[in-house]
C-alpha cells in the first residue's frame, strides 16, 4: 500500500514535470522561432544597411533570414530591393521600382500567383524561416488572413491549369530546337511540320511562354490557330526561329 502510493506520487510528479517542459517548449517555440511577428517598420530595419543585423526578406508574409546570400541581398547586391520588405509582386513582375515593390498580387493570373508561391517554397527550402509579417497576409495574432487563403487557392488553380496544359501539349509533339551563336535558332520536326501555336491566355500571361512550337501532320495543317514561321515554307520541316 505504502509502496503503491509512493509509485503513484512519483508518476504524478513525472507527469507534472513533462507538462511543465511541454509548456516551456511551446512558449519557447511560439516566441522565438515559429511565431515571431514583424511590423512593416521592424522588417525594414533588416535591409542589409546595418552590417550588424541579419538581412531579412518577406514573401507572402513569411519572413526569411537571407544573410547567407549577402552578396545578392546585401547593399549593392542584385536582389537588395527584396531585403527589409515584402515585395511579393516583384518576384513575377520584375518591376523593382516604386509601386512595383508591393506585396499585392492584384490582377495577376493564377499561374503567376502560383509562381510567387513557388518562390516562397524556394525560400522555405533554402533559407531560415524566422517569422511572419503582420499586414496583408497575417493578422496581428499571426493567423493567415483571407487574402493569404485566396492567394493559395488561386495558386492551386494555376497549378491545375499548368497540369492540364502539360497533358494537352503532350498530345501534340513539340518541335526539336537548337540555338548557336553563328546560326541563331532553328526548329524542326522529324515527323510533320513546325507550327507556332498560341497558349491559352491564363498561361500566356506568364511572359515569354505565350507560344510554343509543335509538329503537325499534313492532315492537321488546316486547324485554326496554327502559324507558319516567318520566312519558312508551308511544307518545310525545318525553320529558322
Ligand atoms: C534600412 O535599414 C536601416 C537600419 O538597419 C534604417 O536606418 C533605414 O531606414 C532602412 N531603410 C529603409 C528604406 O527602410
Ligand atoms: C513599375 O510599377 C510602377 C508602379 O505600378 C509603374 O509606374 C512603372 O511604370 C512600372 N515599371 C515597369 C518597367 O513596368
Ligand atoms: C486591375 O484590373 C482592373 C481592370 O482591368 C483595373 O481597372 C485596375 O486598375 C487593376 N488594378 C491594378 C492594381 O493593377
TrEMBL record:
Source organism superkingdom: Eukaryota
Protein's UniProt name = Uncharacterized protein
